[in-house]
Design goal:
Layout (H helix, E strand, L loop, with lengths): L10 H12 L10 H13 L8 H6 L6 H12 L19 E7 L10 E10 L5 E5 L21 H14 L2 H6 L3 E3 L10 H10 L13 E3 L6 H7 L12 H4 L5 E2 L8 E2 L1 E6 L5 E5 L11 E3 L10 E4 L1 H6 L23 H9 L5 E7 L10 E11 L2 E6 L4 E3 L24 H6 L5 H4 L2 H4 L5 E5 L3 H5 L12 E6 L6 H7 L21 E2 L2 H5 L16 E2 L1 E7 L7 E5 L5 E4 L5 E3 L2 E5 L2
Antiparallel strand pairs: 1-2, 2-3, 3-11, 4-5, 6-7, 8-9, 9-10, 12-13, 13-14, 14-24, 15-23, 16-17, 18-19, 20-21, 21-22
Length: about 575
């Protein structure tokens, strides 16, 4: 399933980004299009194909339309993404491209990881090479919690020097990667007049208040602002194309190249306005916002790792395949018997206990396989129990809104659980099929799910309006979202409606935190603390219609404060699947 995300960006940041994106539109030039296409064709026929079909990525598909031909001209004239021949590390000089390590790039896990292409940024006096990935290869958060941080303590650094390093490189390649001592200065050390003007315009009242981080010794890292300016002095040096894997990981992309989502920004390790915002580099065909910044929890920025390698050692193992990358993503053994310890835990579980059943991606690093899923027991009766995931496990929409879902006046149809996109996904290949082994599926019961309209519930809370939602048909599901009555029945904190009182968090039982994967996939979560337990909590879907603001097209949620609330069905809240299982 190719997922998209609803980007939640502050208004000032959105305006800044929009201004930057629009700065390069409409520029074209004439070049030998056929020559460019032939070069790409030759490259694809060489050993070690590029991680994405170069022509598809640059043009969005078949390069046969006039617009796409113009884009090829534009890219070639700006010397952006020229598919230089891959050279041996032994012979490489600054500006060359080399192969080293493997990483998932074509978003097809069954064929294993693809060889990584690196741009040579620098050659040091002793022959050491500084390399940066040619492409944006992933879309991780800089930090998975909203907090002041520096490079020495952030999640991005831990990910690059842990899971990524161990997955992407063979043992010999790891030995060829040198430790690098990094200075981690705040952006105030790089501040200049242009950026001051941007801050005054887009961050009125904000004060640049960054502090330095400790020096670090790393194998893999991001460039800082000074290094971006050193190695990529012109704005069009900073263009970076994403791999298909990165694009499908909720990466934010721009239409700089006229025909679609081809260009992405990439993280630096330098804080911006303050230490909850970090700078990123974004190419431009013109002068634009020279070095903008975005929240550390932004799931839409890209990753371009940097390494320094010993030339001789790297040349000796440049074509080695990492054993860890051999099989692509790890997966469940669907034929495995039910784990005996899991079965014992389920048999002995009481209401409020946590059990483990199934597996799903949670740590936001796909290649080590899915992690065991934890479930909270809500009810135990007659040899069965009702459970719900302890965390919000993924960002998803309740309903994909399209023209077929609108009436003759262009309004959305009334929202019904039976038609919800999320229901189809929960009970199909996106969740049920891949979360559980065959033995675990045997425990999951078919549940008849009722779908009342809840008009009286919402009208009692908004006396000035008349709720007019329509009840839906009963459905039979394996996995489902809870409804309003079930939340009130099974959660200790009964009626969570608080009339906008956001200071007393008396509904902690309903507060939920998202997994790292859910945050990485773009879910909304609270980033400012207004009371105990609020920071980091996420909104989670119910299946009931909502009379919120008298809008029949809204769906009920539990919000970041533990209250009942309403949400547009195409926003990206988290999902907490619930199910009835038989006790083994």
């Amino acid at each position: 399933m190719k997922k998209t995300r609803n980007k939640i960006i502050s208004m000032g940041m959105m305006v800044m980004l929009s201004a930057a994106l629009l700065s390069g539109c409409g520029k074209k030039s004439d070049v030998d299009n056929e020559g460019v296409r032939a070069k790409w064709e030759d490259q694809r026929n060489n050993d070690g194909d590029t991680p994405t079909d170069a022509e598809d990525v640059a043009t969005g598909g078949d390069a046969s339309t006039e617009e796409q031909q113009e884009e090829i001209s534009l890219l070639a004239s700006k010397e952006v993404y020229t598919e230089n021949d891959i050279v041996s590390i032994a012979d490489a000089t600054v500006g060359d491209y080399v192969r080293f390590g493997y990483f998932e790039q074509d978003d097809d896990f069954e064929n294993g990881a693809e060889p990584l292409s690196w741009l040579v940024l620098d050659e040091e006096a002793d022959g050491t090479l500084v390399l940066i990935t040619e492409y944006v290869i992933d879309s991780p958060l800089f930090n998975y919690d909203w907090e002041m941080c520096t490079w020495d303590m952030c999640d991005a650094r831990a990910m690059l020097n842990g899971p990524f390093y161990n997955y992407a490189f063979s043992k010999a390649q790891q030995d060829a990667i040198l430790e690098t001592t990094l200075s981690n200065k705040a952006y105030s050390d790089y501040i200049h007049e242009e950026y001051d003007e941007n801050l005054a315009k887009w961050y009125e009242g904000e004060v640049v208040d960054c502090y330095d981080g400790e020096d670090t010794v790393d194998k893999v890292y991001y460039l800082d602002v000074g290094e971006v300016r050193q190695y990529m002095p012109e704005m069009n040096d900073r263009f970076s194309m994403p791999t298909k894997f990165a694009k499908n990981r909720f990466l934010w992309t721009t239409d700089y190249t006229l025909s679609g989502e081809d260009i992405a920004g990439f993280w630096t390790r330098t804080p911006g306005v303050h230490n909850t915002y970090y700078c990123y580099a974004l190419g431009s065909l013109d002068e634009g916002t020279e070095m903008p910044c975005v929240e550390v929890t932004a799931s839409y920025m890209g990753s371009r790792p940097v390494i320094r390698v010993d030339r001789a050692k790297a040349a000796a193992c440049e074509n080695e395949f990492s054993d860890t990358a051999d099989g692509g993503i790890l997966s469940l053994d669907m034929s495995a018997p039910l784990d005996s310890s899991y079965a014992d835990t389920i048999r002995n579980a009481q209401v409020g206990d946590i059990i483990t059943l199934g597996a799903f991606e949670q740590d936001d690093f796909y290649f080590n396989g899915p992690e065991p899923l934890t479930w909270r027991v809500l009810a135990v009766e007659d040899g069965k129990m009702l459970v719900i995931t302890e965390y919000g496990i993924e960002h998803c929409k309740y309903l994909e809104i399209n023209e077929s879902k609108k009436d003759d006046e262009g309004e959305w149809s009334k929202i019904q659980w039976e038609d919800a996109t999320i229901r189809e996904q929960l009970n199909g290949e996106d969740y049920y099929d891949k979360m559980f082994t065959d033995a675990e599926k045997a425990l999951i019961l078919d549940t008849t799910v009722s779908n009342p309209e809840y008009n009286s519930f919402w009208s009692s809370r908004y006396s000035w309006m008349e709720a007019t939602a329509v009840a839906g048909n009963d459905t039979v599901d394996k996995l489902f979202c809870l409804d309003i009555d079930e939340v009130n029945t099974y959660f200790a904190d009964r009626d969570g409606f608080m009339e906008g009182q956001f200071t007393d968090y008396g509904y902690s039982d309903r507060l939920v935190y998202a997994t790292r994967h859910a945050k990485g996939s773009g879910c909304y979560f609270a980033v400012s603390e207004k009371g105990d337990g609020a920071t980091g909590t996420s909104q989670w879907w119910l299946r009931s219609p909502s009379g919120f603001a008298n809008n029949e097209q809204f769906v009920s949620i539990i919000d970041v404060y533990g209250n009942f609330n309403g949400s547009q069905p195409d926003l990206g809240n988290t999902v907490r699947p619930a199910m009835w299982i038989s006790i083994p």
